Amino acid sequence: MYEKMYDEKMPATGEIPFELPGWIACAPFEEYLGMKIEEAAHGKAVLSMPFTVKLAQGKGLLHGGAVTALADTAVAMAIKSVLQEGTHFVTMELSLKFHAPVRSGVVRAVATIVERDERTIQGMAEVFDDQGSKAATFTSVFRVKKSL
Length: 148
Known about the structure:
Order of helices and strands: HEEHEEEE
Low-confidence stretches: none
């Protein structure tokens, strides 16, 4: 969807030069990485991402930044599934523990909301390789913008 925009510079004005196709949808960065939303409802989300050469680190494994991006996005989609459309929220803290390398195939992140209060939402995601082996465990804290 955003292929023509990938190399364009963001405007200095802060205006966003694109519009998401829906509340629960991949943004340009996520689409660039090849992420797909398989499920997002009731505080849970499942996202997938193909391991392509552009996502490899120097030894041919899936780059840790790509794993982190997938997990963070999966938690964000789980959160979007329970918040009112248009609510602003951001990642405030994140942690990733690797269990095994990803060498090929499609990677999946299964995310859930762990704890929630008025403005703070804690989430977690488990990342699996295409053989079903757990590659990483991700935890995060998101903050919802104050209502005016």
